[in-house]
Design a protein that fits this description.
By secondary structure, the chain is mostly helical. The chain is 72% helix and 0% strand. It is built from nine helices and no strands. The protein has helices spanning 10-24, 26-32, 55-75, 77-80, 84-105, 116-123, 129-158, 163-193, 201-227. The chain starts with 9 loop residues before the first helix and ends with a helix.
Length: 228
């Protein structure tokens, strides 16, 4: 198996992805803030709603994570020349990063799970452009994360799974793809039908935790696979 090119900035990119995973983990902010949301009924993005005291911190974390994911995609270009699936992985990271970045720049005006007035405004379509933009950017980020998980599995499969560590990363990546797709389907059906099908909170928090772990462990797993 061909080794990663010498000019590939492995250590820098590994640090960037680990930092991105930590910043994306809004579960930590929720913990520090004393769980201001109902974990069963709320989305973590509500921590960034403009009427919440956690808004500046949640948005700064998402902004930082998005910028770092875009940086990782740029740093990984030397490795992308090796195989198309690696290029797909980096493009997915860029899409995920762009969606997360713009998610931070287009927060909800209020947290629906905490405010009846906010829910009524959302249901009546009076929430305005901010909610529409937030839904679009969240969808882009979700698609990017699903694609990132899929391409990570494809890269590891092609390169022989990369030992035990590679198999762990493949498992995390597959779990990210499944849970993020599941969450997207559920929320999409709710938007289309107008019905609350299932509280999204626990599923989203599990999925976000998996994304954070995948980002933090992704590059070591992939490197082992490339250099085996």
């Amino acid at each position: 198996m061909m080794a990663v090119p010498a000019r590939f900035p492995y250590r820098l990119m590994r640090g960037v992805l680990v930092a991105s995973g930590v910043l994306y983990c809004s579960l930590l902010l929720e913990l520090v803030a004393g769980y201001p949301l109902n974990v069963h009924d709320s989305f973590l993005s509500e921590l960034g709603a403009l009427d919440q005291p956690t808004s500046p911190y949640a948005r700064a974390m998402d902004l930082g994570s998005g910028v770092l994911l875009l940086l990782a995609a740029i740093l990984g270009r030397p490795a992308a020349r090796m195989h198309r699936d690696v290029a797909g992985l980096l493009i997915s990271a860029a899409v995920f990063g762009a969606g997360t970045l713009f998610d931070a720049l287009s927060p909800m005006s209020c947290a629906p799970s905490l405010s009846q007035a906010c829910r009524e405004s959302e249901n009546s379509g009076q929430s305005g452009t901010a909610l529409v933009l937030h839904e679009i950017t969240s969808t882009v980020a979700g698609i990017g994360s699903v694609a990132l998980g899929i391409f990570a599995v494809l890269v590891l499969r092609r390169s022989g799974w990369g030992g035990v560590w590679g198999k762990v990363v493949a498992g995390l990546a597959a779990a990210v793809a499944v849970t993020q797709a599941w969450l997207g389907i559920e929320t999409g059906l709710e938007v289309l039908t107008g019905n609350d099908l299932h509280p999204p909170g626990i599923l989203q928090r599990v999925s976000v935790g998996l994304v954070c772990l995948m980002l933090a462990t992704l590059l070591p797993g992939l490197r082992q696979a490339f250099t085996r």
